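Action item from last week, closing it out:
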Amino acid sequence: MKKHEVREDEAAEIAARLARALGERGFTVAVAESLTGGKIANQLAAAPDSSEWFAGAVVCYGSQVKHRVLDVPEGPVISERAVEVMARSVAALLGADTSIAASGAGGPGPQEGQEPGTTWLAVSIRGEVHTELHHFDGEPLDVLAQTERAALLLLEREAAKLLRDGPSERSGRREQPTGQ
């Protein structure tokens, strides 16, 4: 099995765990994704009982779609600000409690001056946004699979904190080491 296939299988397992955790508590999830082209939404839609908790997705591959549909400000779309706005906007647009957003340079060449594998992720949970910057290695399919997996893990981790501790007043950003 190729590396990207292993990561996609791992993403499916994470989506199944999210289905149980979020579905049991009545949370709904929306997705705004760019470089992954619908892969994150696909994992969530295939998870158990998704019709009960998965609100839907906006696949906004083109920069102008991000600007027009999700109100991302003009300027770079591979940025922390862009994914923050994407996450908030898709949650509002689809009426979801939680959302995931992903934007990045999948490769093989750079985009917006960002090296291939540079990926920004954001999760919004009831308006609280958490972001991560990743620098993934590999061919485009590997970058996409790593992004898909990392986005779902970010949602799982942040949702677990909320479910355990309750909402807080702060948002946070983390930078991940290369290849994570």
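Closing note: DSSP finds six helices and six strands in the chain.
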